[in-house]
Amino acid sequence: MTTVVATRRKKGAGLRAIPAWIYVLVSALLVLPPVAWVLSTSLKVEADTIDFPPAWIPDPFSSGGYAGLLTSTNIRFFVNSLIYAGGSIVLALLICIPAAYVATRFRSRRMETLMTGILVLSMVPAIVVFIALYSMFVQTALINTYPMLIVVYTAIICGQTILFLRNFIENIPVEIEEAAAIDGCSRPQILMRIVLPLIRPGIAAVAIFIFVFVWNDFLVGTVLATTEDMKTVQNGIVRYISTGFGNFWALFSAFVVVAFLPVLGIFAAFQRWFIAGLTSGGVKG
Amino acid sequence: MSTTSAARALDSRTPSSSPAVASRRRRPDRGVWIYVLPVSAVFLFVFVGPLIYTAWTALHETNFYAIGEFSGLTSFTELFADPNLPKQIGTTLAFSLGALVIALPAGLLSATVLNSLHRFKRTVRGLFLLPWLMSQATAGVIWLWFLNPNFGPVTAITTSLGMGPTDVFSSPTSALVGVTLITAWWSYPQAMLLFLGALQTIPGELRESLKMDGGGVWRGFISITLPYLRNTIVSVVIVLLMLYVQMVTIILVTTRGGPLGATETLSMRVFNQTFNDFDLSGASATAILLFAVNVVLTLVAIRFRRKESL
């Protein structure tokens, strides 16, 4: 396939590529302006953000928006999101790797039914189960607790996680595991010593996928965390819009930029795994 | 049997031919069920339990979050007698199909363009993916700020053209159009990624023979790309529709269902009934309806998966 591309490139598709680049240009004009506008606002002095007509280049440049983010409330939002994401990664891997392993290697009709059930359930609209979870939790002490939110996040991404891991485990030659079994490895030992090291790339991709999902999720934090000290980064962003008074646009924009940086950084560093992890579940639907 | 998937398609390695049937010799012993126990417990707790609870709630009267007397199907008859329901179903359809009609071609076109580029491929892919990398909440609020009627650049442009300020989210029709466009803007890269994976499975020889026969770009698109992507298109349609039908976040951060209920889809109705009207019984009935819609979409998805192994 790469050779085909190489030969084609030599023939020079200079003129033929023009429509494609026009399309790229149009997309850029649709995608970039709001992003650039937020970036520009985040670097303005607060008073300049409500100038009209607006200026695209901040004058003077100011890092006041970013400096102003360092409040205990804001730091709490970021710490919360990190706790939720970290907890979900650990819990999801802990419960999904064994499930994916036996679902791949010990297939039976019942196992397939269970896996289909899990997949179908994980496609239930979140809002449908959230109202019940909320009204159940709000009557108990379970609302606003880290473990509860982590369990909910984990449940939402479990279906895709298992599917994705199964694809990786299927690619391991079964003979390795059989050899280990002959040498006297028990099933947990095979899982820990043989399978786990071999699916490390899959685990990395899944961890990235879970992190981005939890970091970008707004609804769980909105519904199941009712006090401000348990809310997530995304709630922190929207808080400016829904409860903001006075001039807050520079702060708001700086918050948006800072909240986006981890995802952007992960994307830049691990593009391949990132895309593989994020699309795996989607098409299986 | 989930042996093929977008992940596999994205993965350029050839699928290894390991038959996973070695363990068929013995009957699978009971021990394997311990491995799926934790996952099953989590799913019972987060999905099955709440679904039963929702159905239970819909059959009872509620006072805030306390469940009261058994009321039979009253909340369902109230739901279907509600004059707002047809309008909300219409809104859901307009929103979902509107976003689909934009995101599907945009995703296909972006994937085709990206696949045909030889230079700056990674940069362009990053550009195309940018909206989707943001969270839904971010996508909603940055457009809200960009379209701000008092200070936004769009208003500056329309004012200088003498059309007055743009106030997208204050009139019913434009709010619905705005929310739909933002949703399409955020979601088209997802379609693009799925198409991109499928495009890479088209054999190069086909394109070569097209060139031999003197076919152009359009001919190639009609005769090679579209037939190859038929199944992918179906699955992308379903994935996107599911996403749109249950979309809450973007609508919530931009319009909360308003103005005058113009952007209140079924999902938003569930949210508003729960957290604004505190009508848990009514919200549960709506949620059951939403669940039914989702089940239909899921069944279609599964049917096509089995048949064509998406």
TrEMBL record, chain A:
CC annotations in GO: plasma membrane
Name of the protein this chain belongs to: ABC transporter permease
Membrane topology term: Multi-pass membrane protein
Organism: Cellulomonas aerilata
Record's keyword annotation contains Transmembrane helix: yes
Key words, A-Z: Cell membrane, Membrane, Sugar transport, Transmembrane, Transmembrane helix, Transport
Domain ABC transmembrane type-1 span(s) in chain numbering: 78-270
GO biological process: transmembrane transport
Protein location: Cell membrane
Membrane-spanning segments: 20-39, 82-102, 114-137, 149-169, 190-215, 248-270
Family to which the UniProt record says this protein belongs: Belongs to the binding-protein-dependent transport system permease family. MalFG subfamily.
Major subcellular location class: membrane
Entries under Pfam families matching the protein: BPD_transp_1
From TrEMBL, chain B:
Main location: membrane
Biased composition (Low complexity): 12-22
Domain called ABC transmembrane type-1: residue spans: 89-301
InterPro entries, A to Z: ABC_transporter_permease (IPR051393), MetI-like (IPR000515), MetI-like_sf (IPR035906)
SUPFAM superfamilies (UniProt xref): MetI-like
Membrane topology classification: Multi-pass membrane protein
Keywords attached to this entry: Cell membrane, Membrane, Transmembrane, Transmembrane helix, Transport
Renumbered residue ranges of the record's region Disordered: 1-23
CC annotations in GO: plasma membrane
PROSITE patterns linked to this entry: ABC_TM1
Annotated TM spans: 32-56, 93-114, 126-148, 168-188, 233-253, 280-302
UniProt keyword annotation of Transferase present: no
Protein name: Sugar ABC transporter permease
Taxonomic source organism: Cellulomonas aerilata
